[in-house]
Amino acid sequence: MADLCKLLLVDDNPQYIKDVLPYYGYDVITATDGVEALEVLSKESSIDIVLLDVMMPKMNGWDTLKAIRKNPLTKNIPVIMLTAIGDDQKMISGLKIGADDYIVKPFVLPNLLARIEAVLRRCKRDFEPQEKINVTINKNNQFNSLTRREKDVLLLVTQGENNKSIADKLVLSEVTVKSHLSSIFKKLNVTNRTQLVLLAMHVNLLEEK
Fold it and tell me: Which residues lie closer than 8 Å to 151 by C-beta, 6 or more apart?
């Protein structure tokens, strides 16, 4: 990255990430809990992105994210959640609160770097004129290519349902659900559920429960 990006790392055990990210062009500021993170954000007006751990003392990641999104001065800062919990329902809830992406621990460094850069690119694009955003969305999404059943599966995925629950609600086998998901991923050019929900949110397909 050409310009030095200012990143706030909120984690009660930040050492590894704190030490390595500066080598890749990031100016890293750390906070060990949500309370400290909000204090930093109230003083630092040039934070480009936040890496926010879910499990922390004093104030957890969910509550911290809610506070960031409620504050007019910080609501547009991109936030990537770091979590050891690979729970679809919790991830969907976090996306509804305003998380921009998730990284499940343990993760490898190339994945972390790629996800940070992808979120920064996406957020930069989202602040371009609305006309250009609409052209990008219309060009890139392939939702109209989904079958009726694939759309049913997609809707339940955005509501945080797992494969078994989707199978029960649609009266399908889990194997069939997995087959539909594979087709959806291919048609929409995503590789996991989190990316799928983010894309659905981007075109306003995510329904509140």
Answer: 143
